[in-house]
Amino acid sequence: MKVAVGSPGTWSGLLLRTGQCAFAGTSIGVMVSTLGFSNYTAFCYLIASMGLQVLWSFGLACLDAYALKIKRDLHNPVLVSLFVVGDWVTATLSLAAACSSAGVIVLFARDVHFCTTIPHFSCGRFEISIVFAFVTWLLISMSSLVTFWLLASI
Amino acid sequence: MKVAVGSPGTWSGLLLRTGQCAFAGTSIGVMVSTLGFSNYTAFCYLIASMGLQVLWSFGLACLDAYALKIKRDLHNPVLVSLFVVGDWVTATLSLAAACSSAGVIVLFARDVHFCTTIPHFSCGRFEISIVFAFVTWLLISMSSLVTFWLLASI
């Protein structure tokens, strides 16, 4: 099995996982600090999905750090299969959450013009949280592609 | 390169592509026949994305049929790379369209109760179209995984 950039147990892999945690955490932070988010199912789902992403990426970041510390190779078929399944599930859920929230915010901004007609409606903060969720998805999709590539090239 | 179920130039591949075309076409048909869909950006985006999916899957279905007829092997690295890129792009766009429309319909059904309070609002038809879009995404994601696996196992 080749060692690819971003693969488990490497510095680039650790960096990717840390980035996923940071962006998902920021997305949650911005969303929960916005008044009225809990009235919308899509925004609650975004928080749940980003929460799962933080847990998964934090766990794998710890594993990467441990593997780097004890110089252990994580490119084992069983472990890589586990990473592939987890990465694909969390990546799909993250994209679904980001897109469903984006669908709702586009409805508010363009279709019913809530963002301009209701001044206390925090469209900007919702949009920032969704952008962070999309960045998280980009990073987790990179990890997913790398782990799937690793598994396929056994 | 191994011949996997659903790979380009096989009967199972042709069946998958035909299924993608059929479900994407039905999703478009149900959506455009529903009154008021054009007032919502997410539903228009669903039609655009499913339209792209129909074009892509129809093109590949024709290629599969041609390859089966003349018994030509399509497992060529350049062709498979092209299939991988096209499949991944259309799969991501299909999931994004289905999820953004699902976000909007969940808002209408659960958060603002449009489906019960406004009798002429065709929630059911929108939901059917979205379900067909999700089925299309499932089928195109299968094709994507198979082509990516083929490319990685060169």
TrEMBL record, chains A, B:
Residues 7-139 form the Casparian strip membrane protein domain. Pfam families: CASP_dom (PF04535). Coiled coil: none annotated. Keywords: Cell membrane, Membrane, Transmembrane, Transmembrane helix. GO terms for cellular component: plasma membrane. The chain crosses the membrane at residues 40-66, 78-108, 128-152. The keyword Transport does not apply. It is found in: Cell membrane. It is a multi-pass membrane protein. Belongs to the Casparian strip membrane proteins (CASP) family. PANTHER family: CASP-LIKE PROTEIN 5B2, CASP-LIKE PROTEIN 5B3. Homodimer and heterodimers. This is CASP-like protein.
